[in-house]
Design a protein that fits this description.
This protein has 212 residues and is an alpha/beta fold. The protein contains ten helices and seven strands.
Amino acid sequence: MTQFLVVLDVDSTLIENEVIELLADCAGRHAEVAAITDRAMRGELDFAASLRERVAALEGLDVSCFREVGEQITVTHGVPDLIAGLHRTGNLVGVVSGGFHEVLDPLAEELGLDYWRANRLGVTDGRLDGTVSGPIVDAQSKADALLEWAGELGLPVAQTVAVGDGANDLRMMEVAGLSVAFDARPLVREHAHVAMDVRDLSQLLPLLGLRA
């Protein structure tokens, strides 16, 4: 029987990168997009509005950029050990991202994640059209995903763990049984049950009473 469902943020948590900034590099718009990302992470901008603004800056980018960005991603230290340790003890792990399925899907399959959810980019004639396709994965969507997956498992919310670093993770962390601020912004640290400052996600295993 599953004891825990661990749900992580992706950008700067599961991975060391901010995917939208890697896409912005491809488009030659890094500084502009990074500044908007930083303000959104600090909670100074509404996430949905900031995402639309950043995605608009990517208009015209060829879809070949997804492969290029995927090759640049660095998985955070301890992630494979965390996933293996959770699975070995009958637990499950998912991620929910304000980033994009086009980049997340192959990574999630490679890592063996049980659940994942993200935004999708609008594409026309093989190029990004500057829009987000479908509903935006925002702070409430992250919380909803955690609750939905726990419900599918018949798992009490008290046995869920949310791990994140930015303002967009606060609602998910609020509804979880245990919230972990991972190398997080001050606002997130203030609202989490536990703060981790060392960038090693395998630290979650002993926190949950599981051996590394």
